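Field reference: sequence -> structure
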Amino acid sequence: MPSGCPDFLETLRLSRRSLLRVGAAGLAGLTLPDVLRASDRGEPRRAPARNVIFLHQFGGPSHIDTFDLKPDAPQGIRGEFSPIPSAVPGVPVSEHLPRFAAVLDKVAQVRSVHHRMKNHNSATYYSLTGHAPPLDDIRLRDTLELFPAYGSVVAKLRPSDDPAIPSFVSYPHVLRDGSVTPGQHASFLGKPYDPFFIGQDPNDPGFRLPELNLPDTMPLGRLDDRRGLLELIDRQTELLEYDATARGIDDFYGRALSMLASPRVKRAFDLGEEPDALRDSYGRTTYGQGCLLARRLVEAGVRFVTVYFSRSIGGQGSQGWDTHQDNFNDLKNRLLPITDQTVPTLIQDLDARGLLDETLIVWMGEFGRGPKIGDRDGKGRNHWPSCYTVLFAGGGTTGGAVYGSSDRIGAYPDTDPAPLERVAATIFHALGLDPETEVRDRLNRPLSIAAGRPITELFS
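Structure field:
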């Protein structure tokens, strides 16, 4: 190597594993520049996670009343719930999460996540994309200048192996606080990377996907008629409004036709194939059956599944976890029982099927709740983005790990502050995608898929 050249390994930033891959690629007829160009295209490195189940808790769960209790804090802050031991010594949880306590050794916590957005639309956009919005305002609207959802990025850079299997599926709610919350779609990546959205309740006995079932009056020959197929899907779909022209007719037609013809896709959405006992274990709720469906989808090859817990599940919370009023009763009687039944079952089910190591579960809201009790009715907690907890399970993360901590009242990070951008980077890192991988916006500007560093301390 010529004198004065930068160190070769440092310049290329290649790990030993990367060098081994380069060597193998060379034997296969690829040169080192070929491999580096593949890296520039965002092709994934080898990583444990193949899939992500993203459980978004719209409204903002109270970290102080769930996983980061402060029993020694002053009255008016510590809340009504007592901590109980968990499977991780010295790491208690709320008394209303006993099943979660039993599986906490499979869960990694980040207790120091923070940002500055206090409104639902802006904070939720931030949590769904990992990029800060241009303003913190309830009037934030979806535009093609905003960033795409995590699942859309994954659909572009790491699509499903089978073209008939959608890469990104989301359901069963459209998040909104006045206007529809941005960050639920592909934005400037283009319509082909939008989620396959299901607007039906998986807990409904008649749950099915109409667009995957041909009516008796539709002869198979009509599938050769592109216009007829698009009209069929237009009539039957209960998805978000799809604009076939904007999406690109060829992409839309090709994906629809592939799914219509795929028994694998139809089976994935047939919850009736599951034993009643397992369905009962998940919980006969929208959220419970939605998480069971998520397991079936990743089993079928879907890369990214987003399950929204939102307002139409019912209860006193005005928007899912938005407990401005009657915080403790709503948590105790509605939110925590559903969560404690469903999420531990999902973790155990994936583990029993050998899918947990390759499936990253992310459980988070757009922010936490404020330390001070007394919002609105004297019993609520207000929005609190300054410090809250995000959970990871599977996908190569270390069960039982706790990264970062909050201060004595749960108000601000005390150790290892984790900006929300690091959560996004961690999701991509688990999938083997370099957070610095670039995509192009409508003006052809290169933009990194994540603006932070992954929390590598969570991984074995």
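Note: Residues 327-352 form the longest helix (26 residues).
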